[in-house]
Amino acid sequence: MTQPPDPHPRQKASATLAGDQPAQSAEIRRGLEGVVAGDTAISDVDGQRCQLIYRGYPIDALAGRASYEEVSYLLLYGALPTRSQLADWSRELASRRILDPPLPAILQQLPPHADPMALLRSAVSLLGLYDPKAEEESLEAVRRKAVTVIASTPTIVATLWRLRTGGRALPPKSGLSHAANFLWMLLGTEPTEQQASALDAYFTLLADHGFNASTFTARTVTGTKADYYSAIVAAIGSLKGPLHGAANRKAMEMLLEIGTAEQVEPYVQRMLTDHKRFMGFGHRVYKGEDPRAKHLKRIAHALGQASGEMKWFAISERLQEVVWEAKRLSINVDFYSASLLHYLGIPTELFTTMFACARMAGWSAHVIEQAGDNRLIRPLARYVGPHNLPFVPLEHRAPS
User: Fold this and answer.
1) pLDDT digits (tens, 9 = 90+) for 341-378
2) Distance between CA 170 and CA 184 in Å, rounded?
3) Among 1.10.260.40, 1.10.645.10, 1.10.230.10, 1.40.20.10, what is the CATH number of 247-343?
4) Which of 101, 106, 158, 396 could cross-link with 185 by S-S, CB 3.0 to 4.6 Å?
5) In sequence order, what E strands does the chain have?
């Protein structure tokens, strides 16, 4: 059960310093499961009702109806934009999409076959190095940096991939949306309206998700009054892990390993026998199906039909059924993200960077919120090591 926030955090801290040592007797919740660590007005992840809300709007009301440009504005500014505000916001994003020199030249010098998330992590750090106002702390300055990073992250990812595969980096094209521009810069052809809308919906569905691991990392770094870029780089590092953002890549690798819908049941039996994890199933918070999953499933199905190759969707749907029958596990956001991104022609190695492109708006909103009412995030720990060991001088220590 979720516990209410401590109404007297300062008193508890004083008791600790006075020697009462509440951490020694307090209940330990590994992974901070069920612990309320702070307030936020950005998104609500309701595990019991399996609902996700952005700034008061259920995700079902936004998915497929509001563009990522609208949703990113909503997350950063707290309200959906008017028509004129959206036009201004879209122009501002477009103006920041082009990478300023010398970043493109530096990207060419990075090891092309390094992990794409490691490359993205380094590239965002470089953005901070070349920003003369990187250390400015005003909320307006942080918003300015956020616009640059939200706009340029897809450009960075597409550029790094084209360099990795021996191609020529393509500049963003005017008149294309945030999602459409990424597909153009990555693949070299303008996407269809369906393809652009599919990636746009994916970005919207993954734009924010409460105090998840990477977002909490960003807030923790912001809590130390470190700069915006440090918080975002730390968030990227957190997202890189297979138990967080890299799960969508692992889910696609699972589909590739299965190969055909007929091989789903033998695969599930092997996994059960070996006590291995099914990627894209289960969630720390939701007690049932992830509310984003049904939208991703619908989009993946439509993309499969348009491509004339339903194989990956068929494997996914059969796997969803068999795992539910065997384990009563619901799917999460990563499961149908895999086939959706695959149908768009996005290489599997880039799947986690797609997550980062989407989540950049949410991370930025949380950095701004944390900075606006900051308090250093500093939990206690229960010490379980030895006490009062006698000190042995170096000359008397026995070799191990």
Assistant:
1) 999 999 999 999 999 999 999 999 999 999 999 999 99
2) 8
3) 1.10.230.10
4) 158
5) 43-46, 51-54, 57-58
Extract the tokens encoding 372.
């606006």
Q: What is the pTM of this model?
A: 0.91
**pLDDT for residue 395:** 94
Residue pair 314/261 in contact (Cβ under 8 Å)? The answer is yes
Please tell me which residue in 178, 209, 283, 342 is annotated as part of the active site: 283
Q: Side chain identity at 99, as an amino acid letter?
A: L
CB 101 within 8 A of CB 127: no
Can 342 be counted among the known catalytic residues?
no
Please name which of 377, 379, 365 lies closest in space to residue 220, comparing C-alpha atoms: 377
Sign for the CA dihedral angle at 124, 128, 129, 132 comes to positive
How do 51-54 and 57-58 pair as beta strands?
Answer: antiparallel
The tokens describing 206, both together, are: 């993954």
Same fold, 51-244+349-372 and 247-343: no
Q: What is the pLDDT of residues 149-192, one digit of tens each?
A: 999 999 999 999 999 999 999 999 999 999 999 999 999 999 99
Query: Which of the four CATH numbers 3.40.30.10, 1.10.580.10, 3.30.200.40, 1.10.1740.10 does domain 51-244+349-372 have?
Result: 1.10.580.10
**334 in catalytic set:** yes
Q: Annotated catalytic residue: which of 44, 60, 115, 244?
A: 244
Domain residue ranges in the chain:
51-244+349-372, 247-343
